[in-house]
Amino acid sequence: MRIRTLHSFIWKVSLLLFPVVLSHCVRGNAPSETIKLLIPFSQASVIASPEITFVTGPNVYVSTTAGARNTAQFTWNASQAGKYIVRLSTDCETGTLLTQGDYATPGQDITLPISAGSYAPGATPVCVRVTSTTGGFGEKTAFVIRDDDAPTVTVTPGAGAYSNQPTISVSCTDPGGSGCGLAAMRIGADPSMDLNGVLVGTEYTGPFNPPDSATTAYRFKIMDKAGNQSIVATASYTVDTVLPVITLNSVSPASQAVSTGSVSFSYKSNVKGTATLHMGDCSGTLLATSSIATLNGLLNRSISFSGAVMTSNFVAGPNDVALCVQNTAGLVGSTTKTFTRDNTLPTITSITVPSGTVDPESMTFLVNFSEPMSPYICPVSVTYQGATVSCPENATWITSQSLQVKLYPVENANVTWSLVGLQDLAANAVSGLPSGSFRTGMQAKRRFPVTETRQTLCYDAAGSAIPCAGTGQNGLNPSGPLPMLLSGPSAPNAAYPMDAVVTDSRTGLMWMVCPTTQTWSGVSCTGSIFINNWTSAWSDVRDMNIRNSNAGYAGFTDWRLPTLAELSTIKVYEGAPLPSSFFPNAANRFYWTSTTSGAASVYYMMFMSPGGDTFLDSSPIGTSGVSLLVRDPNPGAAPANFVDNANGIIWDPLNQLYWQKCSSGQVTADCSDATNIMLFDPAVSYCSNLALDGRIWRVPTIKELKSIVDTSATSAPFVFPEFPGTVGEYWSSTTNQYNPTRQYGLVSSNGAGTGLDRNGGSGWGPVRCVSP
Predict the structure, then answer these.
(1) Residues 6+ away with beta carbon under 8 Å from 549
(2) Please, are residues 573 and 755 in contact by the beta-carbon 8 Å criterion?
(3) pLDDT at 14 over 60
């Protein structure tokens, strides 16, 4: 055994000495070498070796790469004072000497600067030896690792779409040998770092989970222990663990019967992704695709395909179409609908239509078809009196193959019609749709009780109010012959509290409180009164009958324009044109009726004219008026007609009135001689002095006078045939409140109203007296 060094000691050799073992560490980490000596036990001692500690660790990492760790410090200390030597070697006896010197203070740090350029790539050993003052020594070897190579990043699992939530981990490979160090991560942009740590981004410290229902792009960068940085690794993860659920709102066509038109689905989705339509199931032929870019489960979405796609893929009969929604990770939800392709044209198998002269209450069509039809709501185009009305009819599909159309009643009108727009469920049109024409008569209940005018004032020839006694004017008897029996406004149907009506117990009619363009507020009629021509008025009728989701205004679907006779029953002739407590804010305009005359004329009633109060309009398309609608809940039988008593008197059993058969001045039995025309005051005297059947006679009110008008007449005079020899403009006792020098009169040539001047000029006409 080789003994390197023995420091001063004294020994004596004796055969009687005990053997003493002296051991000391030759190298800090190498196996110990042992020396056996015969030393007197009393003088033997143990020499302790210094312990070396690497403060900066057993390895120092450097790199020549710009920005990396180009320099470092190698720091060590020892547990005993003495001398030290540092060499580039695995032992301290050979190799390049780096430094040596006295180690004066135990525990003192010795720092050696390390420059990467002074070392070869790879690991270079550095040996540190400290020899103590007592002769013991210790050695320890460290390594300077020069690593000029950048590490590489591995992200596990790789980027992609995941239907479950993955756990992402980051590792690296360092070919230069220094090993992986700091790792940085950032979403959507590059992270950055330097030798002091992460500058932008966050430090990766361990596996993590990306968020669900999102696409997240991560960027990673790693720096090895020598300060070399990897290139940025990017991995984008689309995570969507939600199974698509489709809420189907509707399909079009709703019948799911098709020929050449398009098909569309309306739906809601609980996920983002892609919606597709396929033949059969989600693996079938692709028909359409649509992106679901935003997550909004409340949003209605649609997807469709055209008739060309249908033609290429549908067969005659049933065809299954699957609506499929795939989330961003590939999970799929679906629903299927069956569409029937039908290219067979439908036909009319039978039709019953009005012909000849038709009762206005019986204008009904019945049409039967060869197959189920699309429930088109306006299947008839109708022209009344030359005015084409937009969708005026009530159409009811009794079955899917049987259509009943009932036109709204129009009196004494020319009507042309044609079936339009009829298609089967697959939108195949009926070819050669029929058309025709007819004329209406009068409604069966065309006469009503004569009611009060409510006129209380009387006027002199200058239009100033005077006492009514002796004037013969209407103000003498304002409540006769019969007072109105109105009630309301009220809502007959609790489901529609704003649909108010007025009921007339005298006539049995029910009226809307407000015109069609106004709204009942609970107190009055509000909103603007829009005036429409006669064509548009019928459209208003239809709108009221399909109101409240087709339940109709106040729950009734038989509203219509009133006849001239019906409208006359509620008009008053002093103050507001309609009784204000029942019809608040009534418009002072003219009001349309459903009564017509001749080829193209329509009656309307003017409520504020200084002239007459009833007019015949020959151009109803170009004139504008108000629509106040009525219904007759119990039409009943027609009232009794006039009776000729054969004594010069006509009896009206409906109103309990006696009429002079002939006009003033006529004396022949058939009233064929000329009438005697006169001013108003002589007309009053004529009636009061009339000696006929011993009765008291007077000038009739305008309402009484209009009760003998026959608007069904096709030529003059427009009065009932029981009143022969009628000619001219007849006096009434009712004063025109808008021009009190005039009295309302009746134009016998057309049944309209007029104004007659009591002072002459246009104030000459015959009179037909009434009793009582």
Answers:
(1) none
(2) no
(3) no
